[in-house]
Amino acid sequence: MINEKFKEAFEKTKIAGNIAAGALNQIEKIIKPGVSTNELDKICYEYINDHKAYSAPLYYRGFPKSCCTSINHVVCHGIPSEKILKEGDILNVDVTAFKNGWHGDTSRMFKVGEVSIKAEKLIKTTYEAMMNAINIVKDGIHLGDIGSAIQTHVEAEGFSVVQDFCGHGIGETFHKEPNVLHYGEKGTGEKIKEGMIFTIEPMINQGKYETKTLKDGWTAVTKDKTLSAQFEHTIGVTKEGCEIFTKSN
Ligand code: MF3
Ligand code: CO
Ligand code: CO
Q1: Is the pTM of this model over 0.85?
Q2: 116 CB contacts (<8 Å, ≥6 apart)?
Q3: Ligand 1 site-directed mutation target among 77, 197, 214, most atoms within 8 Å of CB
Q4: Using 50, 70 and 90 to split pLDDT, how confident is the model at 227?
Q5: Which DSSP string corresponds to 3-20?
Q6: Among 9, 181, 184, 245, which has the highest number of CB atoms less than 10 A from its own CB?
Q7: What are the pLDDT digits (tens) for 32-58?
Q8: Which H or E run contains 242?
Q9: Backbone φ and ψ of 2, nearest 5°
């Protein structure tokens, strides 16, 4: 179980993580064709505020909103706007809560009405890739083992792993060391240790892995305009495995 030394950090991250996860559950309730991403952002802002926490993305390096909403070929960091969701869209909503000095960061995919079989498969594979990685995390494995677990599964399904963005250490700081790459070789990279807290957040493309950033300075899209999916959990490493701090529906 959890070593006393890490208990406080784990408990605080879980409190922040539960708030972020709770915001996703609220957002899920209103997702349907005709809703704007600004409406999702408002739910996020209000839920976090009601829980006496702050949204970490809001004003982070000039980011203007409380969450990221990344639709279809948007890989990550989509900015909520008056853009309207339509039947068949897939989107990632990424929420980070800051509570009592600690962060919890999580994202998941939502479907707007019925989506294509190809989109379903991309979402399923991305979720499985994240969970495969989470399931091997424990004290003593290498960071490369995480990347390898994700890349192997994703490429076997014919998709590609985004290389321009990665998971990250998190705690009293939103983004800290180590960088958690979602591709790589088993047995390479830093060894992970009991007590470490970081995110695993693979971004997976239907086509090629390359991305580009739009003129707004934030929105990252697939270069080839194919769909992209992402899931993210914040986890804490234990001797035997890891604890997920951001469980939602
Ligand atoms: N939540 C994102 C992550 O997983 C970071 C968003 S930063 C923002 O690391 F400024 F774009 F919101
Ligand atoms: Co993150
Ligand atoms: Co995030």
Answers
A1: yes
A2: 88
A3: 77
A4: very high
A5: -HHHHHHHHHHHHHHHHH
A6: 245
A7: 999 999 999 999 999 999 999 999 999
A8: strand 242-244
A9: -85, 125
